[in-house]
Write a structure and sequence with these properties.
The chain is built from 18 helices and 23 strands. The protein is α+β, with helices and mostly antiparallel strands and 514 residues long. A hairpin with a 4-residue loop joins strand 14 and strand 15. The longest helix has 28 residues. The structure holds glycyl-adenosine-5'-phosphate. Glycyl-adenosine-5'-phosphate binds next to strand 10, strand 13, strand 16 and helix 13.
């Protein structure tokens, strides 16, 4: 479970590498920062997360269809979307350490680590003092120390908002006034704050043909917007309806660290839901509920999720919230749910000169639909699963084990088939069972080393069940099934194995909870 310590992230990254989940990109050349490769177990887990999302969002929703748009898009797309002019992060350099930081993140960290922590401490103290009679809401509204800190937070947030809207000089002034120091060197010798555009650009065509600057998409959403009419017309879709897609996105992040949390090449699972203007608030709430249910059904721990409503809304939004997850670094954004108004479709209408409207036969009118977007980072979801799954356990006999308690439906392998010994016809019997099970499940086969070590290897990659074939199996066609989490073992007939595994590992059972 998440332990909220820096060490845990390192342990998870180390484990992910050692057991073939995630490797640093181009490691033999000392790696490329913020780019990662998914190994033999990682790709299975990633595919299962995608399947869970695709099933829940597309195939189980009559009114949502899929799309797979190209990464390269006409460059005007990004002018229309606002990314050319406004997809910037304010950066600041420390003149002594030569390190680069995001000015807004430094200010947000100051609020969280200095002021919010003060408030939290006051609350904890008061909780202890007043016991059962403690009224948190009243305390937060009346305690002078809390109010002082809260006023300061509000003032800083106000200036941060104005700074993000363009007053970069005041962002620097704020950093200096708050006495924020470089976390590496302790120096407060800062450059001015400058805007840095996060889009990667490249050139299309050879120079001889007259090259054009194009961008690697920083979000998948725009591929959906420009195809709104294609899908609506060819799919005969009626409002409200949604278009979903899974695909790569690229951002030249100023600071990219924390393993796969912030990468320069990553994958998004996004859905744009087109609604009638005026109905967006209702649909926003509806999608908040649907998405949190999707997360909670996985059983990664309800307390590990919370909503964080945005104060500083993006240029396109009239409401926005993050689903935050309790990563090893604390609660951080896992998914964004945004009410994007009609900003994108209107902007594409203006820049393309094409109408992107829906003719509502019931009301006999045309309108540009409003959009509710759900946008989740696949890599962050992967990290959330690893975080919740990573478990160091001391067993009853005093031995230690490292087990990845990955939800069974997402686990890379559902079952490992293990002959107890590598002789006496046990491998042959085990392979016979394996061939049957492979038709339904992703299986491992392992006959090397003592059975205990083989169980540990499966624990480490999160295989929920091990089927062990022993001498008795040859006599009465039974095997044992070992449960990864409670270590129980049951003896069942070979004919029952398929059904028992399906009951406990299938995606259907997970989807039924939604
Ligand atoms: N279309 C809206 C959009 O892109 P966003 O909040 O910028 O919104 C959505 O990104 C999600 O994409 C985030 O919640 C996060 O999970 C993921 N994401 C964004 N930047 C990322 C990065 N550099 N590395 C990994 N995931 C990222």
């Amino acid at each position: 479970m998440a332990q909220n310590d820096d060490n845990l992230l390192k342990k998870i990254a180390g484990h992910a590498k050692e057991y073939g989940f995630v490797f640093q990109s181009s490691e033999i050349y000392d790696g490329l920062s913020a780019a990662y490769d998914y190994g033999q177990n990682g790709v299975e887990l990633k595919n299962n997360i995608k399947e869970y999302w695709w099933k829940a969002m597309v195939q189980m929703n009559e009114h949502i269809v899929g799309l797979d748009a190209s990464i390269f898009m006409h460059p005007t797309t990004w002018k229309a979307s606002g990314h050319v002019d406004a997809f910037n992060d304010p950066m600041i350099d420390n003149k002594d350490s030569k390190k680069r930081y995001r000015a807004d993140v430094m200010i947000e960290d100051y609020i969280a680590n200095k002021l919010q922590k003060k408030i939290d401490k006051e609350v904890t103290k008061a909780e202890k003092r007043f016991g059962e009679a403690f009224d948190k809401e009243q305390f937060l509204a009346t305690n002078p120390n809390v109010l002082r800190s809260q006023t300061k937070i509000d003032e800083i947030n106000d200036r941060l908002k104005k700074g993000m809207e363009g007053d970069l000089a005041d962002l620097k002034a704020l950093i200096e006034e708050l006495g924020i120091a470089d976390p590496v060197s302790g120096s407060k010798n800062w450059t001015d704050v400058r805007q840095f555009n996060l889009m990667f650009s490249t050139e299309l065509g050879s120079l001889a043909e007259g090259a054009n600057k194009i961008y690697l998409r920083p979000e998948t959403a725009q591929g959906i917007f420009v195809n709104f009419l294609n899908v609506q017309k060819t799919g005969r879709m009626k409002i409200p309806f949604g278009i979903a897609q899974i695909g790569k996105a690229f951002r030249n992040e100023i600071i990219a660290r924390q393993f796969i949390f912030r990468m320069r090449e990553f994958e998004q699972m996004e859905m744009q839901f087109f609604v009638k203007p005026g109905e967006q608030k209702e649909w926003f709430e509806n999608w908040k509920e649907k998405r949190i249910n999707w997360h909670k059904a996985l059983g990664l721990g309800e307390a590990n999720y919370r909503f964080h409503d945005h104060l500083n809304l993006a240029h396109y939004a009239d409401a926005a919230t993050d689903v935050e997850f309790n990563f090893p670094m604390g609660f951080k954004e896992l998914e964004g749910i945004h009410s994007r108004t009609d900003f994108d479709l209107k902007a594409h209408e203006e820049h393309s000169g094409k109408k992107l409207q829906f003719f509502d036969t019931a009301d006999n009118e045309s309108y540009v639909p409003y959009v509710i977007e759900t946008s989740i980072g696949l890599d962050r979801m992967f990290l959330a699963v690893l975080t919740a799954a990573y478990t160091e356990e001391t067993l009853e006999d005093g031995s230690e084990r490292l087990v990845m308690k990955i939800p069974a439906a997402l686990a890379p392998y559902k079952v490992a088939v293990l002959p107890l010994l590598k002789k006496d016809g046990l491998p042959e019997k085990a392979r016979e069972i394996l061939l049957e099970l492979q038709l339904d499940f992703n299986c491992q086969y392992d006959e090397k080393d003592a059975i205990g070590r083989r169980y540990r290897r499966q624990d480490a990659i999160g295989t929920p069940f091990c089927v062990t074939v022993d001498h008795q199996s040859l006599e009465d066609n039974t095997v044992t099934i070992r449960d990864r989490d409670d270590l129980s073992q049951i003896r069942v007939s070979v004919d029952e194995v398929r059904g028992k595994l399906a009951e406990r590992t299938s995606m259907q059972e997970l989807l039924r909870k939604l």
